[in-house]
Design brief:
By secondary structure, the protein is of the alpha+beta class. The chain folds into two domains: 48-129 and 276-360, no CATH class; 137-270, no CATH class. The protein is 44% helix and 13% strand. It is built from eleven helices and ten strands. The protein has helices at 2-35, 50-56, 61-68, 70-83, 89-101, 105-129, 169-196, 203-206, 208-227, 282-291, 356-360; strands at 134-143, 148-153, 159-160, 163-166, 228-235, 240-248, 254-257, 269-270, 277-278, 335-336. The protein has a six-stranded antiparallel beta sheet. Strands 3-8 form a two-stranded antiparallel ribbon. The longest helix has 34 residues, at 2-35. The radius of gyration is 33 Å and the shape is flat.
C-alpha cells in the first residue's frame, strides 16, 4: 500500500513538472516572437524608386532608342556584326556610320515611334502599379513674417508646383515636436560626435553641455530642412491628386494632413505625363509599298550619305513621328490611345501647351506632344 502511494505521488510530481515546463517553453516562445524585429515598412515615396527616375528623366538620342526600341537594337546588332571584322577603330567607326546612313527613313521613323510607344507603355504600367504610392511635391520652409509654409518644387517631383499654405506658429511648433520625436536619437548621436571632435582648449571642450545643446538644435534644424517634404497621393496616369501630406522623407511618417489645400495644385504643370502616341499602321506601310512603283518619280530627297542615327541626340522628344507626305487616298494613321476615350467623339481643335521641361532644356524642332483630350476637345 505504501509503495503504491509513493509511486502515485512520484507520478503526480512528474505530471506537474511537465505542465510547468511546457508553460515555461510557451512563454519563452511568446517572448521571443514579441521581441523579434518587425520588417521595415514598405517605402511608398516613388522618388526613392530608381525605375521612377528612369521614366521621369529618360535617356536621350540613341540611348533612348537603344533602351525602348527593339527594332533599333536588332538593327544595331546587325550593323555591329558587319563591322566586327574591321580591326582598325577609325575604319570600323566610318563603316558603322556608312551602314547607318543606308538605313531607310521609314525605318528610322519606325524606331523612334516604337521607342515612344514602349516608353509610354512603361510609364502607364508604372502608374498603374503605384496608385497607392506617394510622389514628392517639394521641400518646405516656414515664413514667420507671413505665417505660411512655403513649398518649393523638387527637381525629382512629377509636377511643378510652388505654393504657400497658411499656417500659424502653434501648428508649425506641433510639427516640429513630431519631427523632434522621430529624429531625436539621430540628432543626439550627431551632437555627441560633434562634441567628441572638439579640439583641446576649444569652446566646446570647456563647455561641453552648452555646446551640445547648441549643436543639437542646429543639427535638428538642418534635418528638418532636408527631410520635411510635401508629398501627394493620386494617379500619375490621369494627372489626379487625391491627398496632400507633409511627411518626414526618411521614415515617411505623416507630420500633417494638407488635404484642405489641394486646390493649390489644380493647374500645375506635369513633368511625368502619360499621353497619346502616334503609331505607324501596318496597313499604311503596306499601302506605301504598293503605291510607290506606279507613281511618278518621287521628288522627296533620299537620306543623306552622312546622315546617321546619332543625329537624334537632340532628344527623343525633339523628333517627329513621321515626315513622309501622305496622299489623301491613304487611310489615316492609327492612334494608340492608352486610357479612357469617349467613343464616336470628334475633336475639332486642340491648343497644346509647350512642355515646361522642353522649354527649360531649350528643345527645338519638331516636338511630339502627348495630350489627353476630353470629349469637349479640351
Amino acid at each position: 500500500m505504501t509503495h503504491r502511494m509513493l509511486a502515485a505521488s512520484f507520478l503526480f510530481l512528474i505530471v506537474i513538472f511537465g505542465v510547468a515546463r511546457g508553460r515555461t517553453q510557451e512563454n519563452e516562445t511568446a517572448q521571443t516572437a514579441a521581441t523579434t524585429a518587425l520588417p521595415a515598412p514598405v517605402q511608398r515615396i516613388l522618388t526613392k524608386d530608381p525605375e521612377y527616375m528612369k521614366l521621369l528623366i529618360p535617356p536621350l538620342g540613341d540611348d533612348f532608342l537603344r533602351t525602348y526600341s527593339k527594332g533599333y537594337r536588332e538593327k544595331s546588332a546587325e550593323i555591329e556584326a558587319r563591322v566586327a571584322d574591321i580591326s582598325d577603330e577609325n575604319l570600323r567607326s566610318r563603316a558603322r556610320s556608312d551602314e547607318w546612313a543606308r538605313v531607310l527613313k521609314k525605318d528610322r521613323d519606325r524606331f523612334r515611334n516604337e521607342a515612344e510607344v514602349t516608353f509610354n507603355e512603361a510609364k502607364t504600367l508604372f502608374s498603374q502599379k503605384h496608385r497607392d504610392g506617394l510622389f514628392e511635391v517639394g521641400h518646405v520652409t516656414y515664413d514667420e513674417n507671413n505665417n505660411s509654409l512655403a513649398v518649393k518644387t523638387s527637381p525629382t517631383a512629377p509636377i511643378e508646383a510652388n505654393f504657400r499654405v497658411a499656417m500659424n506658429g502653434a501648428t508649425i511648433n506641433q510639427i516640429y515636436d513630431k519631427f523632434h520625436q522621430i529624429a531625436s536619437q539621430e540628432t543626439d548621436q550627431k551632437a555627441h560626435e560633434y562634441i567628441s571632435k572638439a579640439g583641446v582648449g576649444s569652446m566646446c571642450s570647456r563647455n561641453p553641455d552648452w555646446c551640445y545643446n547648441l549643436a543639437k538644435e542646429d543639427i535638428e534644424r538642418n534635418l528638418r530642412s532636408e527631410r520635411m517634404v510635401v508629398v501627394a497621393q493620386g494617379d500619375l496616369a490621369d494627372k489626379k491628386i487625391d491627398r496632400l501630406l507633409l511627411v518626414d522623407y526618411d521614415t515617411e511618417a505623416v507630420l500633417l494632413e494638407l488635404d484642405p489645400h489641394l486646390s493649390a495644385l489644380n493647374n500645375v504643370a506635369w513633368r511625368f505625363s502619360v499621353g497619346l502616341v502616334l503609331t505607324i499602321s501596318t496597313e499604311l506601310r503596306s499601302t506605301e509599298t504598293q503605291v510607290q512603283p506606279v507613281t511618278a518619280a518621287s521628288t522627296e530627297p533620299g537620306p543623306s550619305p552622312n546622315q546617321h542615327m546619332e543625329g537624334t541626340s537632340n532628344g527623343n522628344m525633339g523628333e517627329s513621328v513621321s515626315n513622309t507626305p501622305i496622299s489623301s487616298n491613304i487611310p489615316p494613321t492609327r492612334i494608340r490611345v492608352p486610357g479612357k476615350v469617349t467613343a464616336a467623339t470628334i475633336v475639332a481643335q486642340t491648343k497644346p501647351q509647350y512642355p515646361p521641361q522642353a522649354r527649360a532644356g531649350h528643345v527645338q524642332g519638331d516636338v511630339v506632344l502627348h495630350a489627353i483630350i476630353d470629349k469637349e476637345g479640351k
